[in-house]
Amino acid sequence: MTHHESHSFLALVAEESNDTYTQTVKKRKLSDLPGHDVLVRVHYSSLNYKDSLSATGNKGVTKKYPFTPGIDAAGIVEQSADKRFNKGDKVIVTSYDLGMNTPGGFGHYISVPGDWIVPLPEGLNLKESMIIGTSGLTAAIGVEKIVKQHIAPKDGFILVTGATGGVGSFAVGLLSQLGYSVIAATGKMDQTGFLKSLGASEVIHRDEITNVPGKPLLTGRWIAALDTVGGSMLDAVIRQTDHNGVVACCGNVLGHELHTNVFPFILRGVALMGIDSGIALMADRMRIWNLLADEWKPRFLEELHRETGLQNLTEEIQKILQGKQVGKVLVNVRSV
Ligand SMILES: NC(=O)c1ccc[n+]([C@@H]2O[C@H](COP(=O)([O-])OP(=O)(O)OC[C@H]3O[C@@H](n4cnc5c(N)ncnc54)[C@H](OP(=O)(O)O)[C@@H]3O)[C@@H](O)[C@H]2O)c1
Asked: Rounded to the nearest whole angstrom, what is the distance from the C-alpha of residue 131 to the centroid of ligand 1?
């Protein structure tokens, strides 16, 4: 990348000061970005749990600071040395190393390898793509795993845990739209109206799932589950999944350890399936984005999101860290 290297732009910068991490909107230069093949002018990003870890100094996510987080970005190609992309193309970039150790979507520009880029599918605009973002993509990968195991709406309830979170709320909306009866489990019963507006059939307190006897198998309450919480929640979810059911899991909000037993698997044929949107193959990524732009195009994006600019992200980051976020936070990167 040679053009405009002295050109400056705005970005949220996380940095250490007096043993704590702050996030401030600052000027950066294009020369501060890595010299990858494609320079993208970012229009929208979205807030994910991982961004809050990066923004607050979690070295498991981001090694070097000052750093601009943002694992999601949608925008317009400004300059490309990769033949597959031209100036003016609308594109989506999510995961890989973006927002981890490659400066991310909370800035006006990103510089990325062409291999990380998904052309914006017809049927979605930049804003819609970022209301979906990584959390929507993750939820959709989980939903596809459930669908591919031949779980049909008539087979029973589908449980979603962490239901008001980014992944959870999208999963509630998408599964409901596809005709499934969804049980939304949440710690925020005051958000029952929100979860019902996304289509949930039932809203239950998350303690109802975990406050159960420690028996290896419990009455089957759902035929499938999308768990975003992990730890003791995932253990309790597996033990209450019905015969030949499916549990798709993606999160570790309650910790990374899983204590379980073999009976749900060998006596009920339950399948436990992991979701990793970070390393999803490009072909799978494209298929899911195309589904989300067409057959699975979410009809609940308005209810799902709130919009904010870079200036207000610190507050939103604290909220997501405390598990207080509801739905999706869309970041209108150009509004500052
Ligand atoms: N594997 C992947 O590819 C992938 C991709 C994206 C995200 N993730 C992971 O998935 C998880 C969810 O991500 P997200 O972006 O949706 O985060 P999020 O918006 O913060 O949602 C997490 C939700 O978990 C629930 N929760 C919070 N504290 C809890 C507790 N102590 N006990 C039980 N539930 C609790 C809350 O929902 P309620 O109040 O409604 O219960 C919260 O909204 C994170 O662990 C994230 O790292 C993984």
From this structure: 16
Which DSSP helix (H) or strand (E) runs through 94? strand 90-94
Atom 37 in ligand 1: residue holding the nearest Cα: 162
- Domain parsing of the chain, residue ranges: 8-120+301-335, 134-274
Given this model, what pLDDT does residue 278 score?
79
Protein residues whose CB sits closer than 6 Å to any atom of ligand 1: 48-50, 134-135, 138, 162-168, 186-188, 206, 228-229, 233, 250-254, 275-278, 320, 323, 325
Report d(CA 222, CA 242) in Å as an integer. Answer: 6
The pTM score is 0.96
Query: Is there a contact between 219 and 238 (Cβ–Cβ < 8 Å)?
Result: no
Neighbours of 205 (CB within 10 A): 14
Q: Among the CATH numbers 3.30.200.20, 1.10.10.10, 3.90.180.10, 3.40.50.2000, which is that of 8-120+301-335?
A: 3.90.180.10
Q: What is the pLDDT of residues 136-170, one digit of tens each?
A: 999 999 999 999 999 999 999 999 999 999 999 99
Cα–chain center distance at 304:
13
Query: Which residues are paired to 182 by β-bridges?
Result: 158
The yes or no reply on domain 134-274 and CATH 3.40.50.360 is no
User: What's at 289, amino acid-wise?
Assistant: W
Residue 161 has φ and ψ, to the nearest 5°, of -100, 160
* Distance between Cα 173 and ligand 1 center (Å): 16
Question: Ligand 1: which residue has its CA nearest to atom 8?
Answer: 251
Q: Fold identical between 8-120+301-335 and 134-274?
A: no
Give the ligand 1 atom nearest the CA of 191. Answer: 40
